[in-house]
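Changelog note: in this version the structure field was regenerated for every chain. One regenerated record is shown below for reference.
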Amino acid sequence: MSTILPFGSWNSPLSAAAVTAATPRIEGARFVGEEIWWGEGVPEEGGRTTVRRRDAQGAVSVMLPLPWSARSRVHEYGGGAWTTTDDGVLLFVEKSDQRVWALAPGQEPRALTPADPGMRFGALTWQQGQLLGIREVDEEETAPQRSIVRIALDGSGVTCLVAGSDFVAHPALSPSGLRLAWIAWNHPDMPWDRAELRVGRLADGVVSEWTTVAGGSSSPLQPLWIDEDDLVYADDTSGRWNLWHRHLSASVGAQSIAPADADTGGPLWVLGSRWFARLEDGRLVAVRTNGDDELVLIGPDGTAAPFGVPLSSEVLIEDVRGTHLLVSGAGPTSPAGLWLLDADRLEDGVLIRGGSAPWGPEWMPRPRAVSFEGPRGAVHAFDYPPTHPDATGPDGEHPPYLLYVHGGPTSHRGGSASGRIAYFTSRGIGVLDVNYGGSSGYGRAYRERLRGQWGVVDVQDVAAAAAGLAAAGAADPERITIAGGSAGGWTVLAALVQTDVFAAGISRYGVGDARALALDTHDFEARYLDGLIGPLPEAEHVYLERSPLSHPDRFRVPLLLLQGAEDPVVPPAQSEAIRDALAARGIPHAYVVYEGEGHGFRRAENVVNALETELAFLGAVFGFATPGVAPLELSRGA
């Protein structure tokens, strides 16, 4: 029989520490001989990224020991911070100096690139016996310069293969090594706005000439060579990222491969992301996203058969060999993890890392895809109701809810088991994860709802979702809290000053002043706001009108601010200005700064503290006890 307890105060076995430990952050994976290697964040070791390996007998060991950490800062978001040679030499970007290092088993790491504080590397790949990567050179008086490079394993130098655009991604050598394909784009576009797929011929080891074979008005991704004259890539010319085949020597255009009303591709926030791969027998495996992710096998006749593994969110294809593939992702009943799959046995999969939790499935809420009608059309979301095997709320009472706003804003959240979400739902607090207009995963038209409308459409959509949830009787309208980080934090703050739907807010390193963001942020996003709001200085009045800090008198509900002290994307000054505005008006608030953290929290103690602080904040605002978590005292003044 269920015990009746106030929502928010249910006893739960999910501690913040257990949630942090049970949710590994996978950073790429590779087949190496008979072994499987993968990158993994280690919160309890200062948030560093190590590389682990699993041998043929299943024994796991650490390949990259303390204090080394594989993390790239190209574009600030990095990606592709490590790869390996075919014979098991680890090649990685060291976080502290951004140099590329080589580590052979039983030896000490040796540097392959020069010590230069203005130089960074990322997107490392081992292709045709060569180490390729992307180099970013940041000089004080000019914009950062980026190029595709080849890095000599003997440490003799770095060769620029091609440059000539503001940004590059997805370098791919042809089988002969005589051609290079890559993705390029320039300011003010982001890669999901407009990009080009370029192919160049290599002469004396560098690109001598190149042509654009796709893109210009669309957003091609991830070129993959079939043979010396044939490419497969993703492009959204149809409004969806679908797969295309291009024969470079033929006069005919690209041919569509197994078209679908779903996206095989996503925003290039992180370099090296892969949404499809080709098996040795010519079949393709691809991730298709339409709200949820689906992993499919595409045969020679274009038919697509789904894999039976429980993966539906943040699914990426890390590597393939023969009929086997390494896939990272999460599912409705499986937290984030790394899986070994076989294309000849679609229903089977071997869990390599993560994908399970120390608590039972009865504690995990099942995500429910929902939509609400907003001013611009349907607003998509995933609902996670309060879930507890032995507790229920009082009769006639509706639960408090957290409405999550993802970052980006061109990001996406699928429906999946999440320890972070279950941390709240197991205590009687529902979670609604909203993919507001501007999110990826629903096609270009949905993504472009936000064009020129950041701070308008996103606010309207989260308000419509919250109102719709309350109208359906799923949530207490007086206890809905909006929470988000980075661009999601902007929407949190903007929603609090523009609407009266939310009873409280939680902003993690949120943007309070769009004009300051445009002037202070890093180069990758330096012109992002041109498309989201408008170009400066012409649109300065729009920036001022939409920025939450322009309307400090409109803050009226309690707010929690969480901030990294070393955040280069949204500096602490923005959160501090919000804090001061709240203090000046006597609004209950708390401001927590984490030393050593940047844009997002990686250290175990800080991840744990942030999660506990969010729960304690909800308890303080709504007046319920939080067993196992110390109360939080809110400030009203400076």
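Spot check on this record: The mean pLDDT is 94. The longest helix spans residues 604-622.
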